[in-house]
């Protein structure tokens, strides 16, 4: 995953870094630290007020980049792939990046869909789009419902659960494994290894290698015995993808689906359990789940910030002088709250889907991945509310803790309580004998 060649070896231009060419980086805002955890929206507003829609920032380890927080500017950067491209070997700051840099997994070059450009990217993204579009949405929905029911069965009798660990974090990968036609026996290990590899801990690389080995086995198996699943469709696609590229892209799709979808589910359940508007409609009907899902994409989107795009040549953006090879961090959550598009940041989102939460342009979350994510998220929240109608937070809302990430907004835990219920085939425990 982090097989990054030095740019000089790769033949890309190495110029001076942003800090050296732009004195405004002397006032750069650190894009890390505890302030991002609890109330990032306030911080994004402050950065915009003090530095405008394109701000000089420092990433972990003091590495300079630009934070694009204006809606118009994010749109401009993501729309113009000739000027702001995706191949991380274009970066002009590689010589500052230590081998153990925590953000390396996001920028370490490989030949997956993520970092390819132009015609090659269209070939790869087109094949993934076609393979996902062939997933029957009704089957997907009923499969999600079955998984959600099974997970709820496991804790329904106890009257309490952590809806992150026990529910939201488990569902997307179980669904993806089904879309991949993966043998049931391989699924638990894959679920565990993807989680470890996304957590950037010391065993992340070993877990990533195990994920890659599982995907290689899966693709080889599908070559021998194709089925109605995503890997078989990629192997059979007229784009004629190499098996190694399919393996890489399946890993990207798996990781891209897991964390954002799990956090979309968690953030939506949190909103519905803490906001009176949803509590009121909860007893009435289920229409509000779609509204809550959309509102979360505006207010509390899982992908807060995204690394990123690289300037192809010297240019201007938001009044800043950008040099070839500068790294542009997409401030997706900040763009969603840009007062130019949302004068009242706290009004409901209604039916407006023009947020930046799925990115945009050639490298945006590829069609139909957002729709697939929505089917999963909607089914997951609806089954929960159906099965546990009196579910409520087990702790005060203010004590919920967000995971310490600048990139992904999700809860560390979502403790809830509810009246214990039992699946039809389960037997309720005998009440304790009276003490007299
Ligand atoms: C089934 C679920 C999902 C799948 C299969 C999926 C797949 C992908 C893939 C393959 C990419 C890389 C696209 C490229 O580089 O060309 C991507 C990018 C992205 N996805 Fe998704 N995704 C899913 C869910 C989500 C969700 C729920 C969110 C956020 C709410 C999200 C936000 C993004 C963003 C922000 C990008 C980068 C966009 C950009 O660079 O402009 N994805 N996704």
| Major sheet summary line | 6 strands, mixed
What is the straight-line distance between the termini? 65 Å
The CATH homology group name: Cytochrome P450
Overall structural domain count? 1
Helicity range: 40-55%
Instruction: Give the ordered list of helices and strands.
Output: HHEHHEEHEHHHEHHHHHHHHEEEEHHEE
**Oligomeric status of the shown chains?**
single chain
Number of helices: 18
Parts with pLDDT < 50 across at least 5 consecutive residues:
1-19
* Percent of residues in beta strands: 5-15%
Biggest sheet: strand arrangement: 1-2-3-9-6-4
Describe the structure.
- The protein has helices at residues 7-10, 18-21, 35-38, 40-51, 71-79, 104-107, 118-133, 137-156, 164-168, 171-179, 187-198, 204-224, 230-235, 243-274, 276-284, 288-299, 332-336, 369-387, and strands at residues 29-30, 54-59, 63-68, 84-85, 160-162, 305-311, 315-317, 320-322, 327-331, 392-393, 415-417.
- By secondary structure, it is of the alpha+beta class.
- Helices cover 47% and strands 10% of the residues.
- The N and C termini lie far apart (65 Å).
- It binds protoporphyrin IX containing FE (HEM).
Give the tags.
single chain; 436 residues; alpha+beta; Cytochrome p450; 6-stranded mixed beta sheet; 3-stranded antiparallel beta sheet; 11 strands; globular; disordered N terminus; binds protoporphyrin IX containing FE
Helix and strand topology:
Blueprint: H1 7-10, H2 18-21, E1 29-30, H3 35-38, H4 40-51, E2 54-59, E3 63-68, H5 71-79, E4 84-85, H6 104-107, H7 118-133, H8 137-156, E5 160-162, H9 164-168, H10 171-179, H11 187-198, H12 204-224, H13 230-235, H14 243-274, H15 276-284, H16 288-299, E6 305-311, E7 315-317, E8 320-322, E9 327-331, H17 332-336, H18 369-387, E10 392-393, E11 415-417
Parallel strand pairs: 1-2, 3-9
Antiparallel strand pairs: 2-3, 4-6, 5-11, 6-9, 7-8, 10-11
The protein binds protoporphyrin IX containing FE (HEM).
Residues 78, 113-114, 125, 128, 252-253, 256-257, 260-261, 264, 297, 301-303, 306, 332, 357-360, 363-366, 369, 372-373 line the site of protoporphyrin IX containing FE.
